[in-house]
Design brief:
elongated, about 425 residues, Rossmann fold, eight-stranded mixed β-sheet, 2 domains, binds magnesium ion, binds adenosine-5'-diphosphate
């Protein structure tokens, strides 16, 4: 494999990132071989291979385009996916016909080409080409094309993972993740699950007033048994659209997990749940790092002081570098305005992080304290509290959904339903 190192300093422009509402599900363990014609395309494919969504795929890149592909598969078996660049000078269709004679059944072909022409497109479809991507391509275009080969159209809306983590312990990351998940379920009417990853001390069970006999520990400690039915039995229902995968919050075991301890749990949740909110404890280990880097979106919760600022900056830098084809993480400030406490102003914070906080949630010990002790959400205690609007704002930014999907009934709706039915 040849290496086309991406310029490390190279910043992705907003335009080359997928829009917030687009969700690209990670590809399964598949083999991909790319035959490129140009160094630019080879570089894009190379950085696509480093994207988190292709983390499980095996990617090999060669130069030489169609001719090299035909040559390579004369004797060797074909992989799950062949990516072919065509610079338009050679006979693409003739080459594909030739390739078809050596291609194993089930191999999918993606063509990267320069010609934008319906006739060509039809001919490609006729030959069973799975996707045609117009050059020049960015890494995300390659990621999207390969991942979409393996996600069923109806699964598109399924499986967005949102990781919430505190820049320090005790800043309210869990509280915010629980209230945001609640807003996602209630106001955006999305089926959501909160996975409490703080196995020893997690508070999701307390906050939702649930005490289920089983939870996430049953899954992590028996990864071989994990499938949809198994995970379903571990979920406890909090509201119509919200479930909880609770932490045991007991100390009889220790929780020294390996890097990929949660992979099976996340993959299974992703296959059935539209929205998975991870309440990630404030610690830095192989598996917490992996959970953050592998998430579709990240929210960092920070209190307005110097240690939080430094840690938020470090998290931002690391996560942006590890996720070059993703939106940068989001962050919010919490516990703002503790009486007599010197604080770093939001503007100051934003300047250092080079990003604005989604919201700044005030310090309100009375209401947050009651919520925590009663096992209730803020909205259940005080329906009009100003933080509720903030939780919804975070929910909207994280899910990319801007509209609340509440049932609006009007006099005309039965009629409209009828017309729609026709
Ligand atoms: N905006 C706030 N105002 C007052 N108290 C808060 C606020 N946000 C969180 N808290 C309280 O701070 C404590 C720590 O919150 P928690 O969510 O457990 O933090 P973390 O998960 O970051 O360790 C809890 O008692 C919680 O009720
Ligand atoms: Mg916590």
């Amino acid at each position: 494999m040849i290496s086309y190192a991406r310029q490390p300093q190279e910043e992705q422009t907003e335009a080359s990132l997928p829009p917030a509402e687009e969700h690209i599900a990670p590809a399964p363990r598949v083999s991909v071989q790319a035959f490129c014609e140009t160094v630019e395309t080879a570089a894009a494919v190379q950085s696509a291979g480093e994207d988190r969504r292709l983390g499980k795929a095996h990617l090999k890149i060669q130069m030489g385009g169609m001719a090299a592909a035909v040559e390579a598969y004369r004797s060797a078996p074909t992989p799950n996916v062949i990516v072919l660049e065509s610079d338009g000078r050679n006979d693409l269709l003739g080459g594909l016909d030739h390739l078809a004679t050596v291609c194993d059944a089930g191999t999918r072909v993606v063509v990267i080409g320069r010609i934008n022409d319906v006739m060509l497109y039809r001919e490609l479809v006729r030959r069973g080409v799975s996707d045609y991507v117009l050059a020049p391509v960015g890494a995300i275009d390659v990621v999207r094309s390969i991942c979409n080969l393996f996600s069923a159209p109806e699964a598109k809306a399924v499986g967005r993972i949102i990781a919430v983590v505190g820049a320090k312990g005790g800043v309210g990351a869990s509280t915010i993740s629980h209230n945001v998940a609640w807003a996602i379920a209630r106001d955006l009417a999305m089926d959501a699950v909160v996975a409490d990853l703080d196995l020893a001390f997690g508070t999701a069970g307390l906050d939702y007033n649930q005490d289920p006999p089983q939870g996430i520990a049953d899954a992590v400690f028996s990864p071989d048994r994990v499938d949809t039915a198994f995970i379903d039995r571990l979920l406890s229902k909090c509201t119509d659209h919200l479930s909880l995968l609770a932490a045991p919050a007991t100390l009889d075991r220790v929780y020294d997990f390996g890097v990929d301890a949660f992979d099976a749990v996340f993959d299974t949740l992703r296959s059935t749940m539209p929205c998975i909110v991870l309440d990630v404890p404030h610690q830095w280990s192989g598996w917490t790092k992996r959970a953050l880097i592998g998430a579709d979106d990240i929210l960092i919760v920070a209190a307005p002081d110097l240690a939080n600022l430094r840690n938020t900056k470090n998290l931002f830098d690391l996560l942006k570098a590890a996720r070059p084809n993703d939106r940068p993480p989001l962050y919010c400030l919490n516990q703002v305005g503790v009486p007599k406490r010197p604080e770093i102003a939001a503007a100051e914070f934003a300047k250092a992080i080079e990003s604005q906080p989604v919201v700044s949630i005030p310090f309100e010990p009375q209401i947050f304290g009651s919520a925590a002790n009663n096992g209730q959400m803020i909205a259940e205690i005080s329906a009009n509290h100003k933080s509720i609007e903030m939780f919804l704002q975070i929910a909207q930014r994280l899910t990319g959904r801007s509209e609340t999907k509440k049932q609006k009934s009007s006099l005309l709706s039965p009629l409209i339903e009828k017309l729609r039915g026709k």
